[in-house]
Amino acid sequence: MAQDHNESEVLDVxxxxxxxxxIGMACHLREECPDQSFAILERRQAIGGTWDLFRYxxxxxxxxMFTFGYxxxxxxxxxxxxxxxxxxxxxxxxxxxxxxxxRIHFGxxxxxxxxxxxxxxxxxxxxxxxxxxxQTWRARYLxxxxxxxxxxxxxxxxxxxxxxxxxxxxHPQQWPEDLDYRNKKVVVIGSGATAITLVPAMAEExxxxxMLQRSPSYVLSLPAVDxxxxxxxxxxxxxxxxxxxxxRNIHVQRLIYAASQKYPxxxxxxxxxxxRRQVGKDVDMRHFSPSYNPWDERLCVVPNGxxxxxxRTDKADIVTEHIDTFTENGIQLxxxxxxxxxxxxxxxxxxxxMLGGIDIxxxxxxxxxxxxxxxxxxxxxxxxxxxxxxxxxxxSWTLKADISAAYVCRLLKHMAAKxxxxxxxxxxxxxxxxxxxxDALNSNYVKRASHKLPRQGDKAPWRVLHHYSxxxxxxxxxxxxxxxxxxxxxxxxxxxxxAA
Length: 500
What we know:
Largest sheet: 9 strands, mixed
CATH topology of the largest domain: FAD/NAD(P)-binding domain
Structural class: alpha/beta
């Protein structure tokens, strides 16, 4: 249980968010910077972030767990894609094992973070979700582990005629606890990871379920269980086995992504051929044939082809069409076809939000994320003593989050050893370009919010690499003092220097 807060205390580090990134950052601090005091401020009442928020049927990872698990605490089960509850338990167990659970303060929303160069300190205005009372927190370094979307509400388009619909309408991000879909006709709108999870998870209990998509996504079937690791466990220690699975899958992920960029037509043929073998002759392949190249949007994965198996039954089907209007009893499509529905689920994506929607102020000036370039994908241009832990979009999020947290610890140790009070990346000879940090993806939720995201520069270290090996070299092996980071001496040293 977290200790009571003393508003006069100045911590070394404040972490915002107790999701996969925040817990990982705290564990790195425990191991690599044991002398640094820190706390975690979490808006929700539990560890987990995304994995505590999302509670829809079938919720699971869309990355393999050997690379989604932490580098310092390997995933120890043979399941390739794990369910949400198991991921939450893994995060809670990790927090307890690394003794960071008592540093988490729940139910606190950070509204404002203001940096003072004179004090070399961040001052945070924090609101208690339960009673609305405000608190002040202070720290020398701020680490934002807030992800990239709004927790308050997912994205729901303005569907024509939605007010006429007499059934239940829900978004997976706010799944109603009382939603009873047994023996009901259900339409799931969407074609991404959430939709392809919901359809097979709900199919057995509904009367019928339809996946209604405006355009298809690439869907790849993965084995639900890693048979190689299962076999190796008979002879080798678990840490060896799952360490090898992690390295193997990192290389496989990179190979698929690189091949998609270099040989998009070949990868497309291979992906569609795999779907064709599994989906059966009665399902039209146009429902699985996107108009874009592989990895222009995130690749969707299903365990053991569960979506394809479900679509081969009479309990489910897939429709690729545009919505004309909602009716009292369902949805009318542009083609004139109607879909009867008791329940409609709008699996239509996220509303993006950077830095948790916190009002960031530096020496009295309000900061806009899109006006800053990202430095090594971790720090922001001209923003002192602040990091954002932002994972991969073309691989497992945690791969980048892990090495980003390790880099922050390297930076903190460097500053402590040299007596520096602040570190600020400053672009002397680099220029911002019209690319956000997520522009490698053409997903609609990225396009909608691209103008809100931090920018990239025209050269390193202001470029986002999307490459684990190169990022590892840059964040773990390259010198901290690279001529781009500007350091300021600690306040006591400044005072002595100014007096002299």
